[in-house]
């Protein structure tokens, strides 16, 4: 996946969520910046995430993020890699220990632009997160990475409460629940 392919994915991306539709122009604008995939771009940069679900679509794998202290999907910085699908798959493996993950679709599953608060190492900035739908088996052992405090397969019925009603996670949950890709 190169910048041209990513541009095509952004331009053809469709979502029923108005707040998500409104983000697409910003993603396209960022794509024109030569440093868009580098965390050194202080205003904001691309990240990639994996929305990992079980085959039956009853659970999602979430991580308790060490720095943010919130339950989230797995993902991370592109660190110069312009292939965001590859970044999402790599982050999924590194942050979970899962090896038997399966990409459901090469299309973008979700987009989210969110603020990362300032901390000791960096100022406040934005993540332009491109998310992909991934499947995994719930019986495979999990390995907690240094970036996480915990990992858990969370039932869809408990996700909203656990994530603190995080709109972007709830949006992915709703998309998964309504998905035609059941098996």
From TrEMBL:
UniProt GO MF annotations: hydrolase activity
Domain Nudix hydrolase: 43-176
Name by which UniProt lists this protein: NUDIX hydrolase
UniProt keyword annotations, A-Z: Hydrolase
CDD domains: NUDIX_Hydrolase
Origin superkingdom: Bacteria
SUPFAM superfamilies, per database record: Nudix
């Amino acid at each position: 996946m190169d910048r041209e392919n990513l541009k095509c994915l952004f331009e053809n991306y469709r979502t029923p969520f108005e707040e998500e539709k409104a983000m697409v122009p910003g993603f396209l604008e960022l794509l024109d910046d030569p440093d868009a995939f580098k965390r050194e771009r202080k205003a904001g940069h691309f990240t990639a995430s994996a929305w990992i679900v079980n085959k039956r679509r009853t659970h999602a794998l979430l991580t308790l993020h060490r720095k943010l202290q919130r339950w989230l999907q797995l993902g991370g910085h592109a660190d110069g890699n312009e292939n965001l699908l590859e970044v999402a798959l790599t982050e999924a493996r590194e942050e979970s220990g899962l090896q038997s993950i399966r990409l459901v679709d090469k299309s973008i599953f979700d987009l989210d632009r969110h603020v990362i608060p300032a901390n000791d190492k960096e100022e406040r900035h934005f993540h332009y997160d491109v998310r992909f739908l991934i499947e995994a088996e719930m019986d495979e052992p999990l390995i907690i990475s240094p970036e996480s405090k915990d990992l858990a397969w969370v039932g869809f019925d408990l996700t909203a409460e656990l994530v603190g009603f995080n709109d972007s996670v709830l949006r992915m949950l709703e998309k998964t629940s309504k998905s035609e890709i059941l098996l």
